[in-house]
Amino acid sequence: MKELWSKRCRELVPYTPGEQPREQKLIKLNTNENPYPPSRLVIQAIREATADLRLYPDPSCLALREALAQDQGVRPEQIFVGNGSDEVLSLAFQAFFDSDRPIRFADVTYSFYPVFASFYGLPYEEIPLDKNFSIPLKPFLEPCGGVVIANPNAPTGREMDFCDLRSIVEADPNRVVIVDEAYVDFGARSAIELIERCPNLLVVRTFSKSYSLAGLRVGYAISSENLIAALNTVKDSFNSYPVDRLAQAGAIGAIRDKGYFQATVTKLGATRTCTANALRNMGFTVCDSMANFLFASHERVGGKLLLEALRDRGILVRWWDKPRIRDYLRITIGTDEDMKRLCRALEEILRENS
Ligand SMILES: *Cc1c(COP(=O)(O)O)cnc(C)c1O
Question: Which residue among 179, 180, 220, 333 is best mutated to probe the pocket of ligand 1, counting the most ligand atoms within 8 A of its Cβ?
């Protein structure tokens, strides 16, 4: 079957994203999408941008970078925009890491990191998280080819101690540290405040989660001008026009509606607290989460059984068949109504399996 594939392609192990079901009635708590719609300003900005669809988009995303720069207190030259943060991460792996020294990331973290590293032929070491799933400090202070840390981490939701994170970045100014802040807006402290002092730090962010724009595909990096120049060099050697006109316009609309953004992340934070309490009362161990999801395991019933029993009741969550986390589910925070239905379903499943 694969004779026509290149040898390299035959050996690839691609990332498996969470299911995107055709059935509309399912409650989707499996891919960390925001349950609330994007701001009306997003839709309005996209509608206005359709007037110029015959024209190529601005390859440098200047208007969006200016809006982000103002929002984040940096200069536009310190920002790089891509088609979702997955693309930004992919370009960053090419721009900052070499095959002569292994890069390091956690054993339980965003599963795209090993996929990118393998694809680009970069050796890597997976550092085991502590027993309570926190990121250990020492292995990340040791010399290596580069570091990638998701903060808050996925799928655990745990925020790393800020001083620990800073000491990892400062441990070696000659190695790049990527901090993936896909979930930072849900309550964690951002590393952006370190950027002026630490030119080796690259902070990667996305509009997919906190701004409800997973379907638009916009992510960005904030860093020193030097690292941003490297990302532009890789991008412009490959495809100068990645972010389309509608996506650039929509993202600008999203930034302009700070009130709506604040209201949705606050609401999701409150729903997260209620859901975590309810799960603990049912006998779940729940990681302290600063993200829009919870990572939880039950004292009696295994992860796979829970996954399948929830699926039978029309609720999708995420589960990994991996040694350390086989008993855990990752549950996205939806609306209060979604979470009530989740809890009712879990109570029923636990009763049936008592
Ligand atoms: C969702 C997610 C991303 C990717 O987001 P996109 O911008 O939609 O590509 C990156 N990192 C982590 C840890 C994520 O969970």
Answer: 180
